[in-house]
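Write out structure tokens for Glucuronyl hydrolase.
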Amino acid sequence: MRKLLFTVCLLATAGLASAQQANGNKVQMKELIDEQFRFAEQQYKVLAKNVPAQVMPKTYNLKTNKVETSDTKWWTSGFYPGSLLYIYEYTKDPTTLKEAELRLATLEKEKHYTGNHDLGFMMFCSFGNAYRITKSPKYRPTIDTAAASLITRYRPNAKVIQSWNSSKKWKGPVIIDNLMNLELLAWVTDHGGDAKYKKIAINHANTSMKNHFRPDYSSYHVVDYDMKTGAVVKRGTAQGAFDASAWSRGQGWALYGYTMMYRFTKEKRYLNLAKNIASFILNHPNMPADKVPYWDFDAPGIPNTYRDASAAAVIASALLELGQYTEKKDAQVYIDAAEEMITSLSSDAYRAKAGQNGGFLLMHSTGALPLRSEVDVPLTYADYYYLEALMRYKNWYL
């Protein structure tokens, strides 16, 4: 009897200690998240001063100490207003909202853009968040028009949305990033739009599931199609270390994309694929201890090569959503890993000092190393998905 009582007491004590540790961790994360959003509010006021009207920030040139910008047709144009909106959602700072509205007005014309597949990045990360946060109906027509523009790139014979136009190198390229643009289509259908948008999103997700993944659940970056027949011409990369490598941000896009498609469809195949992709990422022998990936999981020179903070931000945000749909044991693995990534990104190793970095939040992202483009620099989408991860953790786990 005494042994039984002693065992019960031990279990009770262990349970209490575990609960206290969990509560203490929540307090720490709450403080961390608050600190990051307060920092972001001030830092983005610095960034706003460095970005002229009619253009959007892309990165910061460490050699010239100047913010590099793009026109609104560039694929990253929606991330700056999207980040401002996440900051406003947390801080309720009217100056931040005013800046977001000014940038949305500049971006709005791109709802008609059909030059590539990036309408979701451009218009849903911006106007989608604006509609969700402000509830203003004025943003809805822009979202609907953007969805109509995006599906002009749908190729029914191959059942995919063509990412880039044909070139000497690619006949009908579809990149793994394209999964991210499906949210725009599925959302429009689920909010009163035509059913065809979601159907196209599902078709694209199914085709990509079939053709983009290797047996270990890593993803190719580019699959090239014969759009008349749907046959795969070849598989390769544009931004990874080599054709068969696991480009880190690409694995993040895949994880995020299929987790998001499960949200819209409750299709178990998507959930299972997302879990397998998460397992590949989190158990990879080349994942660093701080959970901020090298720019490619198969990059030459590991550990003496570049990291990609943007990949960590995308993966962290995706893992937090995946934790919403999985059993407690698996969910805790995803949440813990995302927490480690967020904590690392919020540390001095990756987060800029106040007033520095051109106004961007994060350092040490890698855009396209093989092209020698945007290597070891801040990137606008790294900030966006970092802020999204912070907001998701706050809303779902605190």
